[in-house]
Amino acid sequence: MEKLLLLIAVVAAVASAKSIDIDSSQVQPFESIGIGWSQVQPIEDSDQYWARLPAEMQYLRKQEPDRRIVNGQEATPGQFPYQVFVNYQENGKSFNCGGSILNSNHILTAAHCVWRAESGIVIAGAHNRVIEEPTQQRISFAKVYYHADYNENTLVNDIAIIRLSGHITFNARVQAVRLPALGDNRQFAGLTGTVSGFGALCSGCSSPDVLRYVSNPIITNAECLEHWPNTMVQESSLCLSIAGERGACQGDSGGPLTVVDGENTLQVGVVSFGRRCVDGAPSVYARVTYYLGWILHVMSL
User: Fold this and answer.
1) Residue 142's domain is classified under what CATH number?
2) Is 158 in the active site?
3) DSSP strands (E only) in 11-105
4) Which of 20, 23, 167, 272 could bridge to 158 as Cys pair (CB 3.0-4.6 Å)?
């Protein structure tokens, strides 16, 4: 019976993905790709991002930026071999998000990052994103898939997959992330979650050049709902405490939230949204176990 239910879940995923074809005339060989870093901004700094959020959250944009450091630390090179930097173009502007490697040509990220992307690249193997390190692999988007029920107002179903125009070469510094098993129904509350990315060190600050990470306890959805409405935190969501004023910030969207499970590191969340980085409310992630059927289906297309 359990196998039948899992099969139904995977079949249901067939009708739950939308996609964007990337204009091949805009795709460059990855060896030739350069980025004008002065023109790149986190998606959360854009007018489009805020236009999608409900009215009750608009006041947050007008608050004075919180100048506290979001208390993480610099990663060691290769510490997060599944982490990628995502740079993409939308309406003539350049934005950045995070992502994680699913296999040699699929990247897991957030729908709000790439659902309107016109072109883009992924950088794997980066420690310092602004220099061309010999460990880096830069590969263009070929196609973007995002959840068919993604809601741009509530950010529910905020999950997407980028198909690359070429294949990533795996090595000690570049590896696929491990996902929970299909049918894993653990909630992970109480475990320590680690989020990594190239996002800003405080709300309104510029993004660092190097990869950073922070760890905090995963909390229950009931605790999370004390801070967020149930239109935004649902069973498909996972929340991370911001104890110690630690958490994700602008530019980390789409990146991985992981836990240690025995000898393995599992990705359990995808960075979705928060309140001005660590401003009094837990950060919210797309729950990977909820979307496993969808992820496996998209990877099979």
Assistant:
1) 2.40.10.10
2) yes
3) 17-21, 40-42, 73-74, 83-90, 93-103
4) 272
